[in-house]
Write a structure and sequence with these properties.
It is a single chain. The protein is mainly alpha-helical and about 250 residues long. The protein has one domain. It has 9 helices and no strands. Helix 4 runs parallel beside helix 9 and helix 5 runs antiparallel to helix 6. The radius of gyration is 22 Å and the shape is globular. It starts with a helix and ends in an 8-residue tail after the last helix.
Length: about 250
């Protein structure tokens, strides 16, 4: 009897070791893949620096200016209510509206093709309305979900981060289905991406504010800083997230 119990304990211990080893191996593989994607993102950036530079000044900078001035107006207007909700909507649009040309660039780079500046601009213009409309509706639904234990709000945030990376599909319904499929497969990873994006912005912005607090700064100075940060940071984030969410669809070897 004692021998049987020893064998059972040995089998259970072996099973636990195997499960633990598999979990550790999966975790290490995921970390290695993410590191590989970061390296690949910088390689893609270096291969396509000219269109990225053009899109940064033609798309990212103007949208950042509009978003920032809109937030200033919202908080300085006594008539408007729920200023933080409106400011959040503007910040969200600032991030997701600029994604399409960078998504297109990553796809073409994976096929060893070079994207033209005008090609990215046309793709941005074609997808601008869809992203704006869907994002506004989902954002509004997410705000209403705050009264339902925040669960719809979390789903809305995840959706808003993923949706723009599937907009190359001509069908809005197909884009929505692909977005929910990716959310189902990588929900925890997406939450991690959101935390990293938010944390990076908070750290950089806070550091700059601490540096500038001893100087007299105007709205124009803050605007220039915000535009500069977005022009430097957003392109590499867009490339990395395109690799994160679409590398399998684009047949990228990462």
């Amino acid at each position: 009897m004692g021998s049987s119990w020893n064998w059972a304990e040995h089998d259970l211990g072996s099973t636990a070791d195997i499960v633990g080893s598999n979990h550790h191996g999966l975790h290490a593989a995921t970390e290695g893949r993410n590191i590989s994607m970061i390296g690949e993102a910088f390689k893609i950036y270096s291969r396509n620096w000219f269109p990225i530079l053009m899109w940064s000044f033609i798309i990212i900078a103007p949208i950042t200016v509009f978003s920032y001035l809109g937030i200033v107006y919202v908080y300085s207007n006594d008539i408007l209510h729920n200023e933080s909700f409106l400011a959040g909507w503007l910040l969200m649009l600032n991030f997701i509206l600029c994604i399409p040309p960078f998504l297109k660039m990553v796809k073409k780079d994976g096929m060893d093709e070079t994207i033209k500046v005008t090609e990215g601009l046309f793709f941005f213009a074609k997808r601008f309305g869809v992203i704006l409309l869907v994002a506004t509706i989902v954002y509004a639904l997410g705000l209403m979900g705050m009264y339902l234990l925040f669960i719809p709000t979390v789903v809305a945030i995840l959706f808003l981060i993923i949706f723009p990376f599937f907009v190359e599909s001509l069908s809005v319904w197909e884009t929505i289905k692909q977005t929910f499929r990716k959310m189902r497969d990588e929900n925890l990873s997406i939450i991690g991406d959101i935390l990293v994006i938010a944390g990076l912005n908070i750290v950089l912005w806070t550091s700059l504010m601490m540096f500038l607090e001893s100087y007299e700064t105007s709205i124009l100075a803050f605007l220039i800083i915000r535009v500069t940060l977005n022009v430097l940071i957003l392109p590499i984030l867009y490339i990395y997230l395109s690799l994160r969410y679409r590398s399998d669809d684009f047949a990228l070897d990462i």
